[in-house]
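Table S2 (continued). Query chain:
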Amino acid sequence: MTGAEGERQAVDVAVGVLIDDDGRFLLTSRPAGKVYAGYWEFPGGKLEAGESVQAALRRELHEELGITIGAAVPWNVTLMDYAHARVRLHFCKVREWHGAFEMREGQAMAWQTLPVEVAPVLPGTLPVLGWFAAERGFTGPTHRS
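Corresponding output:
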């Protein structure tokens, strides 16, 4: 395919990069039954029609994790082409939340630092690990292959 015929519409996804007081960040596993099940990623989900990135992130993190977030500060946006979809990932840093974490989709969660110990890591998560490395002056591999 060429031209507009070969172009796939990007799906906008709000992604929460939750950072705790110790500088650790939260990764969750993709639940069974979803594409890339078992891969680790930052939590979030698709924007609904007319929804802002912050509103989508607030809704998704409550639905998936049972928490209510404070400010979601836009950080970076990246476009990923997966076999099943093209996604525009809107990464937001979140440093405040309340409520107990509940893995409502049967996923696992892990607080991580660099290098990330959980594996495998979703390809769309890898750029974020690079951004953390740059911000934190970290050198070396950011994750296990």
